[in-house]
Amino acid sequence: MDCFTGASSGALKGVCFSDGTFKNINSINELNAKCDEITSMCWSGASDQTEVLTAQMDRHLRLYDTVNDKRSSLFKVDGGTGPVKGLHVTNGGSSIVTAVESGEVCVWNEEGAKLSELNAGSDLLVMTNNSIHNQQYATGGIENPLKVWDIEHGQKIFTAKNVRPDNLQLRVPIWDTDIRFMNESQNIVTTTGKHQIRVYDPRSQRRPVKEMEWLEEPITAMTLCNSQMHIVAGNSKGEMALFDLRNKLRVVCKLKGCSGSVRGIDAHPASPLVASCSIDRFVRLHDFNSKKLIKKVYCKARLNKLLMKNDISIMDKREKVNKEELDEYDETWRKIEEGGEVGDNSDDFEASMSSEDETLWNDMRERVQHGQKRKKNKLNDHGDERVLAKKGKTDDRNKRKFASENENVDVKRNKKEGSVQVSEDIIAKSTALNQSSEKTRSNSSKRFADNNWIDTEHESKRFHKDV
Predict the structure, then answer these.
(1) Cα–Cα distance between 412 and 9 in angstroms, integer?
(2) Distance CA 63, CA 409 (A)
(3) If DSSP codes are grouped into helix, strand and coil, which group holds residue 363?
(4) Which fold has domain 3-310?
(5) Which of 80, 110, 140, 216 has the fewest other C-beta atoms within 10 Å?
(6) pLDDT digits (tens, 9 = 90+) for 430-466
(7) Dihedral (Cα; 79, 83, 86, 89), 10-degree rounding
(8) The whole model's pTM is what?
(9) How far, in Å, are 221, 255, 260, 284, 285 from residue 293 at the CA level?
């Protein structure tokens, strides 16, 4: 099995990425989701990751041995109220540290006897261990700021201070959903239900030294990865991304494929692989270097928590393939060097080359030579020698273009001739009209003169008669 995941139904499932299958560790017919739901998981104290410790809703702790395929019940966590929110086994495996929702952090031995207890505050959501300083633990929750504890002495080392009010001078609520200690430094990174990522430096100040907002949904899960000062986080919408915590916080890349609230994330410490589980019942394996989804396994139940082993089958398969390719490459070059120059191919080297590669190479060489000859105008399009340069033919498009241009010229010429003819007709008509008007004017003047003469003669006759 490559990873183990706990479901809301109480089922513990082992997932194998190489063949894309899962296996139910416990009998699902005997489970009751109200009391058997898995709320927290961790590896046991052994460094070989052969034992998985789980906490159920009824606070019972159960241990699963992956080597012998045995599941045993340890004891029930007493004190406080609410489910177990944090679970950790010390390196020696001699003690177990638990944290419940009401804030009681207790240390137990293997028989279930309480060794020490402290109160970290109510509404606790997360408790995590410092891998460098094993006695240090960090807690946080709703209106429960980040605190760092020394479990061995029962003392509080650090208490974070809330950030300053926002632009409207409103208080920013405290809602820490996940906490991690940075391996390369003493910094602490937290995620909140208000879609914020914060980095604390307990050596300098109580408020976060870096902060950023990511999308608009609560960030529900987070984990460290093989890259220094990098984390992988997911939110309640199903978005996952890789973040760079150096200098200014920024998103490096997004990991697509999730469609439900991300509940658990675990990254491989030595390779760019990260596994995640969500309420859409899928376990996914991403490679954040290539930003691709490598595997997706359907587990038939809503998943809450996830643990991934350091030696996973798909990684072994990758390493095996890479090693075989490297060995084959080295062997080929060794044979070439023993045979002399690359052109002096030995029998073994000729046998290793496939006929398909030879055919492809010959075809490419012929095409290159053919192209060079065509550039020198030695061959025509059919591969024959060029004898006489042929006159280029005019295509139909050019013919239509020339015809249309000629038609336009004829139309213009006709229009010009027509306009000249029309102008001559107009001049002739105007000349005739002028002549007719002059003739009419002369006739009218003559008639007027005759009338005047008649009137004068009549008046003279009447004058003489009167006299």
Answers:
(1) 91
(2) 99
(3) helix
(4) Methylamine Dehydrogenase; Chain H (2.130.10)
(5) 216
(6) 677 667 666 666 665 555 555 554 454 554 555 445 4
(7) 70
(8) 0.69
(9) 18, 8, 16, 7, 6
